[in-house]
């Protein structure tokens, strides 16, 4: 576990982006998330770790109200984005998701060209006033996702024809293109090989300068490498939340220690 | 021996073989089934297969070949003068077969002993009246020549049947013996049975393919006959459909019928595709599980209604409705049978075809694509329009083309809804007719199968077949070409 010291632990700002208080999630009768409080700081990578089924993905999906698409899911408590409750009836979940982008576990490019994949969000939200502006957004997004050099000559080819790692970066470009403030990543590297994983991790660190990134991961090494803050979930509860270095070197809860040393999980 | 008995005996041998084979296998392993290469039942099945299959195969072939061989033998006995008297060789042979069968029937009923039947002579007995007594009517007096041929026919048949019985039973016994002898603990009975099953499966698919080929060939031959009597260019490019059975002045142009078919089908698809597709989108994307569980079967009930019932609906409801509220007020016609009537009702019939297939296809689009789109802040309908439909499009096009080939082949709705008048017209409230209706029309009632008026039905049928085949091939191609684009 030496690599956990590889990243500097500075948190650049202390502006709170998202504050969650007393969040409970129910799937039908199942109590999936129990009374979770989390603060997501701007321009920071926050990692959610924990064993399978501990609710970290569920909680992530609360942050952009993706759970709304599941009929039986019910969310209680308050989640504030920039001081505004995202579960307020005034808030349009569709608009919210443009502000809180999401990258999924499996790369899921649309069966369209690379260009159309990236232009999808801007087109829907009317972010570009003409074709030139759209071109610019697409280029900028692909550059941010470190895919421009590989994709610039084949923008009209289907996104499904890229390799797995490229597809995932395309999905990141697609999310970045809507100009989000927060990027949620649900195990973005679990379907990728080590080289592609390293590229994505590097990318996540760069994305931190513009967005606050929340990443769910199964790999503790990955959490240690890319994040500044780590939250450990276990059986639907938030066990421990704090500086990544602190969690990994000096956990205060015995369950956290058991998990990072491999005794539960 | 009657055929039924041969079959029963062979099957009994097969069952016996099963039991024996099983026993022998178990015995060879000293009663321990773990030593056997295959399960005991495989050894039994193996013996059964060797007993039954070759015997029945020979039996089947024999049943086909024997009549042909006998026919050829007997035909050579008929002199040319007899043929000239009767008109043709075929008619004489029909008489021969009738007399031979009649004698058999007479023996069976006890009107003649088999000896009497053998020695019966036209000089002493009126064969025709004797056979008439047992219910076998003959067209004319039986000549000595025909009687001789009939006796020969009976004789050959008797010998043939005897030989068949012997050969088949010996073959069954041999098969049983051979397989039984081979049954041993190391014999790979399982593989043999596997091979037999494979053969059955191959045969089944071959029959399906051969049937298609057979249908096409029969259509092709009749169509060929038709084109010998009627010029092909007049058929394909003629704009007049006016068959007259009396003279040679029939006009048998395909175009008015094809136009009617296309017109009705297009209207049907204009009705079915939007409604079916929207219903599918609602069912697959928006409907809750509860709504879906009762609405989907309800839509599919439409597919179970017989087309003749749709035809009645067109005739008594939709037709008059369209005439009274649209055609007459607009001055477009006074006919209750119209292209519009048939098209709309056919469209209703096709809704479940489009919706059910499209529903399955939309459901097959991975959830991850929906999540991706929602995650970017797209609404549900934007997601459907921009992600799901493009991903499902190949399948949906396939569904539409399948519906189209149904529409083209539909008959009853057109008969009752659109009428039977062949016409090249643009007015959708005018009665028109389609290819299928005319096929029925040309072949019902008294038809002379050597006249172009009847044979044209086959040319029409082949044309339809080619069109729907083309559509199906196109549908398959599209579905296959673009399937799994998302995966």
Characterize this entry briefly.
The complex is a heterodimer of chains A (265) and B (487). By secondary structure, chain A is α/β, with parallel strands linked by helices.
Jot down its keywords.
heterodimer; A: 265 residues; Rossmann fold; six-stranded mixed β-sheet; four-stranded antiparallel β-sheet; 25% strand; B: 487 residues; mainly alpha; MetI-like fold; flat; membrane (chain A); phosphate transmembrane transporter activity (chain A); ATP-binding (chain A); ATP binding (chain A)
What can you see in these coordinates?
- The complex is a heterodimer of chains A (265) and B (487).
- Chain A is α/β, with parallel strands linked by helices and 265 residues long.
- Chain A has ten helices and ten strands.
- In chain A, the strands form two sheets. In chain A, strands 6-7-8-3-9-10 form a six-stranded mixed β-sheet, sandwiched between helices. Chain A has a four-stranded antiparallel β-sheet with strand order 2-1-4-5, covered by helices on one side.
- The longest helix of chain A is centred in the middle third of the chain and has 14 residues, at 131-144.
- Chain A starts with 15 loop residues before the first strand and ends in a 5-residue tail after the last helix.
- Chain B has 487 residues and is an all-alpha fold.
- Chain B folds into three domains: 3-187, no CATH class; 189-229; 237-482, MetI-like (MetI-like fold, Orthogonal Bundle), CATH 1.10.3720.
- Chain B is built from 18 helices and two strands.
- Chain B has a two-stranded antiparallel sheet.
- The longest helix of chain B has 41 residues, at 189-229.
- Chain B is flat and about 90 Å long.
- Chain A binds chain B through residues 64, 66, 69, 71, 94-99, 101-104, 106, 108-112, 120-121, 124-125, 158, 160, 171, 174-175, 178, and chain B through 288, 366, 368-379, 382, 386-387, 390-391, 485-487.
- Chain B: One of its GO terms (biological process) is phosphate ion transport.
- Chain B: It is a multi-pass membrane protein.
- Chain B: Part of the binding-protein-dependent transport system for phosphate; probably responsible for the translocation of the substrate across the membrane.
- Chain B: One of its GO terms (cellular component) is plasma membrane.
């Amino acid at each position: 576990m030496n690599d956990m010291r590889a990243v500097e632990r500075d948190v650049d700002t202390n502006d709170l982006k998202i504050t969650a208080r007393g969040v409970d999630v129910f799937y039908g009768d199942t109590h999936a998330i129990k009374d979770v409080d989390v603060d997501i700081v701007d321009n920071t990578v926050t990692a959610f770790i924990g064993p399978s089924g501990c609710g970290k993905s569920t909680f992530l999906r609360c942050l952009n109200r993706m759970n709304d698409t599941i009929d039986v899911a019910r969310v209680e408590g308050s989640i504030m984005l920039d001081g505004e409750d995202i579960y307020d009836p005034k808030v349009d979940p569709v608009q919210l998701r443009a502000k809180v982008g999401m990258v999924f576990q499996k790369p899921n490019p649309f069966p369209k060209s690379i260009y159309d994949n990236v232009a999808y969000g801007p087109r829907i939200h009317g972010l570009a006033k003409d074709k030139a502006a759209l071109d610019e957004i697409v280029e900028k997004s692909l550059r941010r996702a470190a895919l421009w050099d590989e994709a610039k000559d084949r923008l009209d080819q289907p996104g499904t024809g890229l390799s797995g790692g490229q597809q995932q970066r395309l999905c990141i470009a697609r999310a970045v293109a809507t100009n989000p403030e927060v990027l949620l990543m649900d195990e973005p590297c679990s379907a990728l090989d080590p080289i592609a994983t390293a590229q994505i991790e590097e990318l996540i660190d760069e994305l931190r300068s513009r967005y606050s990134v929340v990443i769910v991961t199964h790999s503790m090494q990955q959490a240690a490498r890319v994040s500044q803050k780590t939250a450990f979930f276990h059986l639907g509860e938030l066990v421990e939340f704090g500086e990544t270095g602190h969690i990994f070197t000096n956990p205060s809860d015995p369950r956290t220690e058991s998990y990072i040393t491999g005794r539960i999980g | 021996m009657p055929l039924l008995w041969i079959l029963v005996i062979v099957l009994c041998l097969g069952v016996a073989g099963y039991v024996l084979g099983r026993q022998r296998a178990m015995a060879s392993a000293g009663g321990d089934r773990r030593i056997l290469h295959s399960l005991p039942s495989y050894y039994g099945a193996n013996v059964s297969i060797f007993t039954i299959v070759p015997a029945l195969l020979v039996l089947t072939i024999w049943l086909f070949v024997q009549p042909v061989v006998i026919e050829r033998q007997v035909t050579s006995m008929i002199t040319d003068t007899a043929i000239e008297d009767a008109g043709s060789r075929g008619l004489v042979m029909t008489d021969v077969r009738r007399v031979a069968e009649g004698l058999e029937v007479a023996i069976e009923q006890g009107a003649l002993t088999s000896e009497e039947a053998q020695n019966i002579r036209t000089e002493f007995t009126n064969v025709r009246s004797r056979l008439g007594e047992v219910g076998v009517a003959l067209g004319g007096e039986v000549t000595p020549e025909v009687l001789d041929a009939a006796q020969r026919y009976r004789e050959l048949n008797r010998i043939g049947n005897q030989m068949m019985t012997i050969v088949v039973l010996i073959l069954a016994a041999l098969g049983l013996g051979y397989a039984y002898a081979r049954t041993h603990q190391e014999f790979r009975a399982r593989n043999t049975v596997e091979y037999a099953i494979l053969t059955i499966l191959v045969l089944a698919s071959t029959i399906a393919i051969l049937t298609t080929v057979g249908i096409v060939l029969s259509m092709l031959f009749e169509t060929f006959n038709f084109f010998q009597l009627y010029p092909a260019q007049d058929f394909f490019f003629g704009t007049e459909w006016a068959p007259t059975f009396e003279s040679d002045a029939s006009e048998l142009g395909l175009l008015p019928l094809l136009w009617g078919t296309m017109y009705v089908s297009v209207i049907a698809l204009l009705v079915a595709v939007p409604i079916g597709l929207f219903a599918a989108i609602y069912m697959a994307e928006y409907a809750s599980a509860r709504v879906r569980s009762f609405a989907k079967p309800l839509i599919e009930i439409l597919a179970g209604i017989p087309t003749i019932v749709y035809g009645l609906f067109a005739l008594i409801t939709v037709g008059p409705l369209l005439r009274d509220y649209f055609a007459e007020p607009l001055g477009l016609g006074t006919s209750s049978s119209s292209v519009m009537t048939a098209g709309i009702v056919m469209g209703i019939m096709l809704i479940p075809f489009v919706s059910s297939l499209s529903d399955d296809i939309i459901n097959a689009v991975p959830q991850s694509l929906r999540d991706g789109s929602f995650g970017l802040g797209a609404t549900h309908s934007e997601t459907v329009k921009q992600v799901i439909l493009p991903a499902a499009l190949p399948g949906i096009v396939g569904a539409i083309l399948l519906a189209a080939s149904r529409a083209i082949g539909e008959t009853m709705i057109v008969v009752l809804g659109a009428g039977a008048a062949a016409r090249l017209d643009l007015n959708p409230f005018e009665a028109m007719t389609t290819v299928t209706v005319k096929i029925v029309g040309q072949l019902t009632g008294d038809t002379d199968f050597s006249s172009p008026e009847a044979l044209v039905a086959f040319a029409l049928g082949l044309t339809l077949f080619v069109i729907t085949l083309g559509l199906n091939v196109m549908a398959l191609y599209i579905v296959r070409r673009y399937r799994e684009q998302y995966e």
